[in-house]
Amino acid sequence: MYTGVPTVKQTAVYVYQAPVRIWHWVTALSITILAITGYLIGSPLPTLPGEASDHYLMGYIRFFHFAAAYIFIVGFLFRIYWAFVGNSYSRQLFSLPFWRRRFWSELAHELRWYAFLEKEPRKYIGHNPLAHLFMVVIITVGGLVMIVTGLALYSEQSGLGSWQDELFGWVIPFVGQSQDVRMWHHWGMWIIVVFVMLHVYTAIREDIMSRQSLISTMISGWRMFKDDRP
Amino acid sequence: MATTETFYEVMRRQGVTRRSFLKFCSLTAASLGLAPGVTGQIVQAMETKPRTPVIWLHGLECTCCSESFIRSAHPLVSDVVLSMISLDYDDTIMASAGHQAEAILDEIRTKYKGNYILAVEGNAPLNQDGMSCFIGGRPFVEQLREMATDCQAVIAWGSCASWGCVQAAHPNPTQATPIHKLIHDKPIIKVPGCPPIAEVMTGVITYMLTFDRIPELDRQGRPKMFYGQRIHDKCYRRPHFDAGQFVEDWDDEGARKGYCLYKMGCKGPTTYNACSTVRWNNGVSFPIQSGHGCIGCSEDGFWDKGGFYDHVTDTRVFGIEANADKVGIAAAGTVGAAIAAHATVSAIQRSKQKNQNNARHEENDKA
Hints:
The structure holds 2 protein chains of 2 kinds.
Chain A: E1 11-14, H1 18-42, H2 57-85, H3 101-114, H4 129-158, H5 163-168, H6 171-175, H7 178-209, H8 217-220, E2 222-225
Antiparallel strand pairs in A: 1-2
Helix pairs in contact in A: 1-2, 1-7, 2-4, 4-7
Chain B: H1 7-13, H2 18-31, H3 38-48, E1 54-58, H4 64-69, H5 78-84, E2 87-90, H6 98-111, E3 117-121, E4 124-125, E5 134-135, E6 138-139, H7 140-149, E7 153-157, H8 158-162, E8 176-177, E9 188-191, H9 198-211, H10 224-227, H11 238-243, H12 253-257, H13 275-278, E10 314-317, E11 320-323, H14 324-366
Parallel strand pairs in B: 1-2, 1-3, 3-7, 7-9
Antiparallel strand pairs in B: 4-8, 5-6, 10-11
C-alpha cells in the first residue's frame, strides 16, 4: 500500500577524505586557470597601445600559467602520496582493474545506462567503472603527460643545466622539436577541456538520476544512497 | 700541400700583420665566450700547431652553407679563413677535378689517419641505391662512410647534414638521411641552420683546431655556445612580447613600430640558434630585425611543422594534418551539443519514469 511517505532509507559511506576533497577543488581551479592562460599564450590577446615598458600583459598571463602549473604539480605529487596513506578509494586514481573481467562487464552496463538501455544504474561506493577509466586515463596519465611536456617547455626558458632541463629536457628531442612539444601540450589542453565538460555534466546528471550522491560527496566526503536495494 | 705550416705562418704569408693576428685571436676568444686570459692560449696554439687537414664533402645540398661560410667577417676575411683550416678537399671550390681531386681523399685518409676533420655539407640519399647523389662515379653515401672511418670527428654543416632539411621533408622520396643516422662511431658536431651563421661555422672550426677537442655539445649534438639558447631568449623585440604588443597584420602600425612577430608565426620561441646575438652579414641584421618572423631553419624537420606564418601550427598525425585549436573547438562544440541532447533525453526519460511510477502508485492506492 502506497502511503506517500518515503519508504526508502538513506545510507551513507565516508569515501573522500578531506585531503582528497581539497586536492580535487584545488586541481579544478588550477586546471581552469591553466586552460585559459594556456589558450591565451597560444593565441594572445589583441595588441596593447603605448610603450612596451607600460605593460606586462603577456608576462602576467605566463606567470599565472606557471604558478597554476606548479600548484597542479604539487597537488599531483601530494595526491600520489595520499594514495599510499589514504583509504582504499584514494588508490582508485592510480589503479585500474584492467584484467578483471567484471570491470569490463560493469563498464558495459554503465555505457548502456548512458545510452538509455538500462532502467537504472548500479551502485558504487567509489567511482563507477566508466568514471574510473576516464579518471585514470585523463587525470593520471593525461596529467602526467601535461606535467612532463609542460616542464620540458619551461626548461627552455630556465635554460641548460636548470633542474627542469636536467629532468625533462630530454622530452624535446624525444618528441621531435620544441614546436612539436608545444602542439602536443596544446592538444592535451583540449582533451582535458572536453573531459571537464563531460565530468561536470555526468556529475550533475548522476547526482539527479543515479541512486547515489555525487556532487555533495566531493564537498562532504559522504556517499549517500537513495535506496536500500543492492 | 704544405700541411706542416702553422696557422700563424699561413696568416703571415697571406699578408696579415701580427697586430691583426692578435686582434683575430682576441675576437675569436670573445666570440667563443671565453675569458680574456684565454687569448694567449689561442695565440700560442695558432703559432705552434700544424694545421689540421679538413675534408669538406658535399652531399645532397644547395651549397648555401659554403656561401655563408666564405662570408665570415670575423675571424678575418674569407681567403685567410680558407687557408687557415688547410682545406684539402672541397669539390665546390677546389681547382683540381676528376681523378686528381678524388686522389686527395685517399692521400689524406692514409697520411692523416685519425687526425683529420670531416666536414659534411648536405646528406646522403639512400633510396634508389643512393643514385640521387653521385660523386666520383659512386653514391655519396659510400664516399661519406669511407672518409668517416679514419676521421677524428665529423662536423655536420647546416640543417641538411644535421637533420635532413628540405630534401628530407615529407614524403622524402630519396630517403635523404642526416649524418648522425649514418655514422655512429665518431663524434658528430651538428651546426644546423639553413645556412648556419658564418661566424658560428668559423667559430666552431676555430675552437676545434685551437683546443684540439670538440666544443661542449647539448643533448642533440649542437655546440652549446651557439645553440644553448633560443632566438626568443635574446631577441631585441622580446620586451614587446612580454608587454603583449604584437604585429597583428603585415604593414600594420605594430609592424612599423617593430612589435613582436609571435602572432605572425615567428618560430623564435622554438628555435635554438645565435641569430639574435651574432646576427648575419657581419652583424648587420637578422630575419626578425628585417620585420619577418624566424622560420626555425635550424630546427629538426622545420619544413614539416606546419605554416611559417602560424603560431599554432598543424600537427601531422597518421597522415592527417590537423590544427589543435580548430579540432579542439569543434570537439568541445560537438561534445557540448551532445551533452545538451543527452540531458534533454535524460529529462524526458526521467519524467516518463516518474509518471509511470506515479501511475503505479495510484493503482496501488486504488487497490
